[in-house]
Every structure is written in structure tokens, then in C-alpha cells.
Amino acid sequence: MFNLTRSTLLKTTAGLWLVWGFVHILAGVMTISRDAAGALAGIADAVDPALLIGPYHEAVGAVINQHGFNLAWIGAFSVIGAIYIWRGSVTAMFLTAVVGGLADVGYFVFMDLGGFVHFAPGTVMTLISGFAIILSTVIYLTGMRGKNLRQT
Asked: Which of 4, 19, 23, 58 has minimal CB crowding within 10 Å?
């Protein structure tokens, strides 16, 4: 039997969002730095890359770059949110959960359920954000104000 304090849960939640955020910043940079075919192969990693060879219209590359930009800023937002979560901000827990969580809902619906990606790294990142949201909810709903949350 062990005790989980509010501080421990906050730091764990912050750590999960840090990992999630940095992975998404990296994914965004990698997406923008590749051509359309390479970026698509990197995103839809369960699809045979030979099936994704272009040529693609420049507009496709622009949409892929927009996606990469969104990955990067959402990742950066989550990293900043994690810093405030570490310090105990309920507002940061809520905002980070909304931004990161909604980004992963889209990923889950269109990429995971579509069968276009492998379990790692994408689905793992969805599980990490989901666990961070669950921990945030536990912290908020239990009203842990310096008290211990007993767990068996």
C-alpha cells in the first residue's frame, strides 16, 4: 500500500504531457522538413511507403506542412502547460487536456481506427495523453489540497 499525494499526481501528469509535447514538436518538425511523400510515410507508418510515392500537387505539400505546424504548436502548448501543471495550475490541466486531448481524438478516429498507423509511437502517445487526462480528472474531482489519496 502506498500514498499518492497531490504533488506526486501533478508531477506525474506534467511528466506525461512533457513527453507527449516533445514527441509532437519533433513530429511536427520532421513532417515539415520532408517532402509530401516522405511526410505521409512518416505519419501513416503502417502503410507501405511505395504506395505513397507521388507526384503530389503543391497543395498537398502545403496541407502536410500545415499539419506539421499544428503538431509542433500543440506540442509546444503542452510543454508549457506541463510547466504550469507541475506548479499546480488547474487551469493549465484543463487547457492542456483540451488541446492535447482533442488533437489525439482526431488521431485516434482517423489514423488508429483507419488502420494507417502502428501501435508505437502514435497510439502510445494517445494512451499517454489519455492517462494524463485521467490523472488530471482525479486530481480535480478529489479536491486533493495537500491531502493523501490512498490507493490499494
From this structure: 58
How is residue 129 written as a grid cell?
Answer: 495523453
pTM score, two decimals?
0.88
Distance CA 84, CA 79 (A): 9
Between helix 90-107 and helix 6-33 the angle, nearest 10°, is 40
Closest CA to 103 of 35, 39, 28: 28
Each residue's pLDDT tens digit, 40-61? 999 999 999 999 998 999 999 9
* Residue with grid cell 503530389, as numbered in its chain: 56
d(CA 98, CA 104): 10
Residue 5 has phi, psi (to 5 degrees) of: -90, 165
SS3 for 68?
helix
In three-state secondary structure terms, 60 is helix
